[in-house]
Amino acid sequence: MRLLSTSARIVSGVAAVYAVLAAVSLDAAEGSKNRKPNVVVILTDDQGWGDLSVNGNTNLSTPNIDSLARDGASFDRFYVCPVCSPTRAEFLTGRYHPRSNVYSTSAGGERMNLDEMTIAQTFKAAGYATAAFGKWHNGMQFPYHPNARGFDEFYGFCSGHWGNYFDPMLERNNQIVQGKGFCIDDFTNHAMEFIEEHQDEPFFAYLPYNTPHSPMQVPERFWKKFRNNDLQLHNRNPKSENLQHVRAALAMCENIDWNVGRLLKQLDDLKIAENTIVIYFCDNGPNGSRWNGGMRGRKGSTDEGGIRSPMLVRWPASIKAGQKIKQNGAAIDLLPTLADMAEIPVVSQKPLDGISLKQAILENVNVAPERLIFSHWNKKVSVRSQQFRLGFQGHLYDMHADPGQDIDVAKDHPEIATRLLTAVADWKAELLPGFGGDNRPFVIGHPEAQLTQIPARDGTAHGNIKRSNRFPNCSYFTNWTSVEDTITWDAEVGVTGTYEVEVYYTCPKGDVGSLIELSFNDSRVSNRISEPHDPPARGAEHDRVDRAESYVKDFKPMLLGKFRLKKGTGKLTLKATELAGSQVMDFRLLTLKRVD
Question: What is the end-to-end Cα distance of the chain in Å, rounded?
């Protein structure tokens, strides 16, 4: 047998290599085809339906967000709640927010009941890596913390809003850290790191951004376009607009778009975009009077403009580009829809209020033409059918003919009005009795958490002490001028143990020396303020518009000491037993770390 020439052997070897590579590539393609889809959910804060150029707003440009509609599907009508934390709860649980007793946006009322299962728990049970980056707003202390609700990774803040968006104090997996740069850019950086780390396995990444919620802060590169910009489109009541607030909100939306573009490019660069579902929606109507398609209502309202959200979904492997979905949808639908798309079981044992819209998205079929979607806040309930909206005052609107809700047609459609009135009454009777009452203590020392944060936000002040602002989120306590003044929390210790306590404080030099005591039932720990720390209030230097919320300070941790806590409930009380000057301190946060 004659031996092959060197060149022939090389050609033969190369062919064999290519054959192997082709087989590997085929196996990889087949594996990719059979792999569960990745999921990225982007939820923005106080961005209305009208704050995207894809919806006709020529005041700004959002090409990256718009591309999700161009390359995937967009809902004509998609509904969320009038305010932040209820929408998040409905997305996370697939159930209306009163069922999980999310009755407020602060001071504990934003927490979801512990018998609720989240979308993260559903995906984690199916083998997904799970993470959240941004504003959680459904509970700070374990077991309400995102790390206890199905998210392997969390980076952001748990409060309802934050006082400074540049290099702020944040947390990562329940440990306090310092943010880097503008928070939306920072959250996106961490999300991209997570995606790169988990690109070879299915992942579920949740990005609950906290803009364009106030304070109205945005990097200069985005603000300079809008600083003196003439706006082309205006609110249905132009006199109600604060033009600088509008400009700041639009600049913040363009920053969001830039970050969405970075994230989408990463999916392309990693070659995982084809099998990644990307969802984009908002948590309520716009946080100010600005163009919103002529709809009535804004944030806080149960009218169309307060609860209609953009809903864009891209999944190149399965969704036909440019789909326009006529089926009404809602935040409660996202858990069953995404689980259905991923072909994984929902772990919740409770009946969901949401339905799977998989068929509507993939085949543009109206899967539930007669369904009703209820919207609730502050004892006001409205309901939406596919065509009509019954407002909270009982007026009926034909939303196809009258999207601005200007004409009550109840007399023209008495049967429809009666049916919807009855449906609202039944919904209230089922969901609202007992809603809003709260006997849930703040948990210290949960078995799964070494560190517990107890912020001023969740406390009750007594005596002269005042909040730095009427909005509790990100506030601090000040005007602490007497030994009779106290701050209390209804608390429950989860694990008996020794806890190291730190107090985050500020105190001018002339007032140093007060003796501070923290007590819980029979346990006490005390220490004296020995070091002055009097930084200026921060935030104004970054604000594009005067804010309504509190400014913040760089609060300093002071070791109070260690004390023994026994498992059980009681009153956690912070007070001064000696007053050294005109005031004790300004107080922002307690941390209790279990050390044994």
Answer: 79
